[in-house]
Amino acid sequence: MVAESWSTTAKRCDACKTTPSTVFCKADMAFLCLPCDSKIHAANKLASRHARVWVCEVCEHAPASVTCKADAAALCVTCDQDIHSANPLAGRHERFPIVPFYDSASAESRSAAADHEHEEEETEEEEAEAESWLLQVPSNNTQGIEYKSAEYLFSDADPYVEMDIIADQKPCSTTNIVQLHHNHQEYKEDCVVPHVMNKNEIQLQGQVVDGYPTYEIDFSSGSKSFMYHFSTQSISQSVSSSEVGVVPDHNTMTDVSNTFVKNSVVNGLPNPVSSSDREARVLRYREKRKNRKFEKTIRYASRKAYAETRPRIKGRFAKRTENDVGDSLVASDASYGVVPSF
DNA sequence: CTTAAGAACGGACCCACACCCTACC
DNA sequence: CCGGTAGGGTGTGGGTCCGTTCTTA
Description:
By secondary structure, the protein is α+β, with helices and mostly antiparallel strands. The protein contains 14 helices and 15 strands. Strand 4 and strand 5 form a beta hairpin. Helix 4 (77-84) packs antiparallel against helix 11. It is elongated. The structure holds a DNA duplex.
């Protein structure tokens, strides 16, 4: 059931309307396939400066916000939360914020990109330019609006931006307010958060730690809170409640994450995501992961070196014998001063 | 078409110990 | 505030176990 919707549910390119989209252009607020992206963003210098990000490889309906190194996957906030909250182990996957690219997507891309490129005929430069200008005008379609909040939340404008999203329990049409605090400036925009927020308070804070931009998303719901912390160097996850190490339940984290981006605004109406949707997302993710190369991240090369030289019994580490101890000293000397390999 | 048995697959777990990180003096 | 020390926690890889999925009869 889920597998059937695998490719057919991928979001169509906003330009050609036929090919599944693979990139999202923030400036145009448009989902594009690789050929259209190449055409449109190579049309003129202005268009070539549009920052683009990959579309989430799981739901294929939202801009990716993080890259999971362990899974080699670009994921949107919603899928990231769903997948990496599935179990404590997944929660420890190292993830990095998506870095927008400005070159042609096909140049950036994964191997599959080339195939699509060959299929596409080169078109007139004027036509592409016209298409580009058309897309620069924010369309009235729901997608454009739908991800407007996501663009704010993950704006690459300034790592020092602090954003507080405060929502009460009233419907979107009343008093939900987004406040952006930046250098004493304050921006307010109505109706960004749908009413399904249910008194959750979301904070996105950016700061620089050790030279790396660092972001924190704080999902607080009543007595429970979920702190999501990541930087461009590394990522850590902490759950500041009694549920440490326990899969967050659907009502707390998943609802918040779904609300966070995907359901930000859909025609001004909430779009609640059921547990079946969450399950489907995870299944789709696992299916795609099968086709990827699993790359294990080694944080400490020295530990790896020791592990490889360590005696084993049926795959398990065993106590060293006296001879092994001697070898260990040699190995220790050899690896002296090894710097952790991040 | 349905069912059951076997095969294949994948993820979790275990082990020892050097190193990292924090608290303390 | 800085340096040294102690102690607990973490990460590392290969084999094995076991549950799930797939294949075949």
